[in-house]
Amino acid sequence: MTMDAKEKEKLTFEQALAKLEEIVSAIEEGKVPLEQSIDKYAEGVELVKQCRQILDRAEKKIQLLGRGEGGQLEVTGELDEQAGEDKQDA
Amino acid sequence: MAAKRDKLYDFFDPSRAKGPRSGPDIGKEVVPQPMSVSLLVARVKQALADAMPGTVTVVGELSNVKCHDSGHVYFRLKDSAAAIDAVMFRATAGKLKFTPTDGLEVVVEGRVDVYDARGQLQLYVERMMPMGAGSLELAFRQLKEKLQAEGLFDAARKKPIPRFPRAVGVITSQTGAAVRDISRTLRRRWPAADVYLLATPVQGEGAAGQIAESIRLMDASASALGIDTIIVARGGGSLEDLWAFNEEAVARAVFAARTPVISGVGHEVDVTICDLVADVRAATPTAAAELAVPDASAVRGWLSQAATRATRRMRQRLDEARLAMESIRRSAIFRDPLGRVRTRMQRVDEFAHRLRGGIRHRVAQARRSAEPPAGRLTALHPARLWDRGAAKVNSLLARLRWALGGRSKRAGDALAGIAGSLMAANPVNRIRLARQQVDGAARQFAASPVNRIRLARQQVDGAARQLDAMSYRRVLRRGFSVTRGRAGRILRAASQAVVGEMIETELADGRLSSKVAGPWDNPSEPRATGGAKPAGQDHAEAPAKAGPAGPPAPGPGPARKAPDPGATLFD
User: Fold this and answer.
1) CATH entry, B38-132, from 2.40.50.140, 1.10.1020.10, 3.40.50.2300, 3.30.300.30
2) Exposure check for chain B: N or C terminus, fewer CB within 10 A?
């Protein structure tokens, strides 16, 4: 996933979890009127769904970085983890 | 002995030699030929070289250490009784892992020689080792103290590691155990994060510089790549193997990085300077990966738990709300909302019944007496009866209206209208109007009250008729009569009679029947003023004559007009 796509996610994972904690607390305390609680509950259900989606993302390979033009790092390939081991621990 | 001495002083100019000193020479000083300083120093150097060829190994204490910009290190090596100047040139000094400092006990290897320009004895040091510890250990200790004093290890400066990084950057060798351990651990725990590797040599010549450069590069590109955390790692090894991570260059690069750095170098027991400067130290590369990302399965568990908590509580609240609704629904009002209305209705019924009964009773009473005194009749006057009835209806209505609320307001208002107008208006003339109003109100009630009211109305009608009958008898007694024709229909006009038909005349005390002979044409009698006159036709004047109006109306009414002699209350 590129940075742009990530930036477009409405909430970061951390923010989503924090909001969820807030919603669950609000519902459990019961100080919120019933109708609002129902709305919050629906929001919570949506957040749980989003978080689960993020968690269930498929595993990706490690990407190799190298110096590109202008001195910035850029992706040059993927790590082949089946490559031979070194004799020493490195 | 003499021969040896000869050899030593070979560099003397023999031609100048005057030979050994002779015997006592009183008055005349004989000195050997003087040599130049250069010669002297040269001869000393030679002697030294001959006597102490090769390298010497000396133990002593460092003092007066001066590290020049040139890279050469000048110092003094001393013990309690003697000292010798020493120098370590840049080439060898640069290889020193530790920093020579005053007071340090060292063992040096070098050559002793005379520095020509000053004729000074010097020790040219090629190797220097600290006494009591390895140079690496010393170097480590020295750098640690130095950087600690500068604050590079300060806990307050350590940045927190992001809990849910979007991407993790790894600096380590592309081969070796470290990268495999890290990648396996990151993928297992948190596949949501991207992983980038900047392959870097982790030991050997120049490794420290490359590691430092990698850290700088990755930190600079971190935001573009979404790297929230950097891992610097190396598998286990000896102190020499790990030495690059104890170099100052690496420490400075880690300290300068804006991205949080996790250091995972060597095994648990290995602590490097890099570990001390990093924001978090991990015992191993695997541990570094575990610190960099959370455990997805634990987070999944929390999510499920949160969902359960919320759902349970929502169900509870909905159940509570439902119970509250139920108890309201079961309460009396909802079970039988019309209950109170019916109670009121029943009272109206009872009242109507009594009203009917009361009137009938009064009417019967009035009938029984032939000449009821005026007072009693006045009391029996329908107007009075209605006044009383209306008052009662009014009060009941007020309560009924309240009980029924808005829905029956119209009905209540209608009944109120009845009560009001009954009180105010001529009840004799208003009975018809009352009947209409009651009809209207009754229609808005439930079936049974309507029937009862209708029944009451009928009774009222009956009573009214009887009263009506009573009232016109007084007219008859004054001499008027009522003439009825075919089928008992009252004749109002002479033209309504047919010559030759039988007519019936009702007088105060009875009836007469007669036959119509013809129209009465008596010019001395005044014509009838009321009643319809058919155009162009002479009236068949019935024996009933026009006369003054009937009994005057007891109360205010609409515009009064002279009633027909034959008019009844039902017109």
Assistant:
1) 2.40.50.140
2) N
Domain B140-295: which CATH number of 3.10.150.10, 3.50.30.10, 3.40.50.80, 3.40.50.261: 3.40.50.261
CA distances from B206 to B199, B274, B536 (A): 15, 16, 148
Query: The pTM is what?
Result: 0.55
Among B143-157, B225-239, B385-399, name the one with the lowest average pLDDT. B385-399
Q: Does ipTM exceed 0.85? A: no
- Report how far residue B126's alpha carbon sits from residue B123's, in angstroms, rounded to the nearest whole number: 9
Interface test with B, best of A9, A36, A46, A73 (most B CBs within 10 A): A73
Of B487, B540, B483, residue with least CA distance to B513 = B483
Which residues numbered 21-80 in A keep a CB inside 8 Å of some CB on B? 21, 23-24, 27-28, 30, 34, 37-38, 41, 44-45, 48, 51-52, 54-55, 57-60, 62-67, 71-75, 79
Chain B contact set for A75 (CB, 8 A):
196
Give the domain extent around A34: 10-77
Express each pLDDT in B174-211 by its tens digit: 998 999 999 999 999 999 999 999 999 999 989 999 99
**Which residue of chain A is at minimal alpha-carbon distance from B320?**
A34
**pLDDT bucket at A11, cuts 50 / 70 / 90:** confident
- Distance separating alpha carbons of residues B87 and B106, to the nearest angstrom: 14
Give the best-scoring range by mean pLDDT among B79-93, B463-477, B514-528.
B79-93
Pairing status of strand B167-172 against strand B194-199: parallel
Residues forming CATH 3.40.50.261 domain(s) in chain B: 140-295
Domain assignment present for residue A62? The answer is yes
**What pLDDT is attached to residue B332?**
60
Residue B212 — very low, low, confident or very high, per pLDDT cuts 50/70/90? Answer: very high
> A16 at the B interface (CB within 8 A)?
no
